UniProtKB/TrEMBL annotation:
<dbReference type="InterPro" id="IPR003115">
    <property type="entry name" value="ParB_N"/>
</dbReference>
<keyword id="KW-0614">Plasmid</keyword>
<dbReference type="Pfam" id="PF02195">
    <property type="entry name" value="ParB_N"/>
</dbReference>
<dbReference type="InterPro" id="IPR050336">
    <property type="entry name" value="Chromosome_partition/occlusion"/>
</dbReference>
<feature type="region of interest" description="Disordered">
    <location>
        <begin position="1"/>
        <end position="41"/>
    </location>
</feature>
<feature type="region of interest" description="Disordered">
    <location>
        <begin position="302"/>
        <end position="324"/>
    </location>
</feature>
<dbReference type="GO" id="GO:0045881">
    <property type="term" value="P:positive regulation of sporulation resulting in formation of a cellular spore"/>
</dbReference>
<protein>
    <submittedName>
        <fullName>ParB domain protein nuclease</fullName>
    </submittedName>
</protein>
<dbReference type="InterPro" id="IPR037972">
    <property type="entry name" value="RepB_N"/>
</dbReference>
<feature type="domain" description="ParB-like N-terminal">
    <location>
        <begin position="85"/>
        <end position="177"/>
    </location>
</feature>
<dbReference type="GO" id="GO:0007059">
    <property type="term" value="P:chromosome segregation"/>
</dbReference>
<dbReference type="InterPro" id="IPR036086">
    <property type="entry name" value="ParB/Sulfiredoxin_sf"/>
</dbReference>
<dbReference type="GO" id="GO:0005694">
    <property type="term" value="C:chromosome"/>
</dbReference>
Amino acid sequence: MSKKRRMFDIEMPPEADAAPPKTFPAGKVSHAETTPPRRGPMAAAITETSDHARDRGALEAQIRAENDKLAHEFVRLKKAGQIVDRIPLDQIETYKLARDRLPGLDPELDELIASIRDLGLSNPIRVEPREDGRYELIQGYRRVQAYRRLLDETGDAETWGAIPAGIEARGAALEALYRRMVDENMVRKDISFAEMAQLALNYAADPHTAENDPNRAVAELFQSANYSKRSYIRAFIRVMRELGEDLQFPTEIPRALGTTLAARMDEMEGIPHAIREELKTWENRSVVEELAVLRRFAGGEIPEDAPRPAPKPAVPATPGGTKAKTTFQMERPQGRAKCTAANGRLEIRLERDFSALERRKLEQAVRLFLDQLD
């Protein structure tokens, strides 16, 4: 018996919806043609190294640009004296500028010390680097003295052994440094006319400055002062030049007394010598007694029996009007001493209060020194 074949209907999708037929290449096809190219380990390493070097070079260039910018800013701040660091006291020298403070007791130094001890230093000093690695003091002599006193009294080197200092760029003109020191001190009410006059004398005597005349030096140093104040300073120059070494309290001379005394010296030649001779008899005089002597000579004539000055020997002029000098330094227990010898002048600078020495001992030492020169 034969079996009947059963038929089934199959629905085919329309031709429009049919997927495109796949095509297969005839023959063999290489693997490289059918897959994306693949780099070998060496090529990949070289590419990665190249990319890293390029990124590193860009980063280094950026760092160098930033460093250059910081370096220029540092130089600018240094020239402006705005770089502050703690400088050891034993690295600070005070030879370059003649100070406007006369040696002797400074009653206001105790007030400064008390302020620094309680509140700290509000205004850093100014220093200039030297070629030997040390520093030359430009501004802040009393602040340095205060720190040294605090170090001696406490022995605390960590706190008082170094002082905040603004570091100036090396190479500033000496005249400009003097001006800056003067202008800083002019705002202080306690600086005396005697000290300002002595500074003008020291400035004119300094072999490194171009000005020889202390009266003209006043115009250079005290440009910020008015005409009247410069006139008073010039009057005190006359007093300090004649009597500076014989006065024990020059900073106590009032302005009126100093100007009157200078005028009297111009009128009567023998007054300075007469004052010096009388002051010799007052070894332990007080401020009141010294001022009384000056007032008497400023207001009256020279007594008939007053000793007359001996004629001064002529000092030969230096050829060309220049200031010849000899300078040298030597180490002493108190520090480094700087000696300057010029025509008619010998100066020794040392961090020591020579006024505290017994007068007889000091005279003997000077006499022995002068005897050795003959």
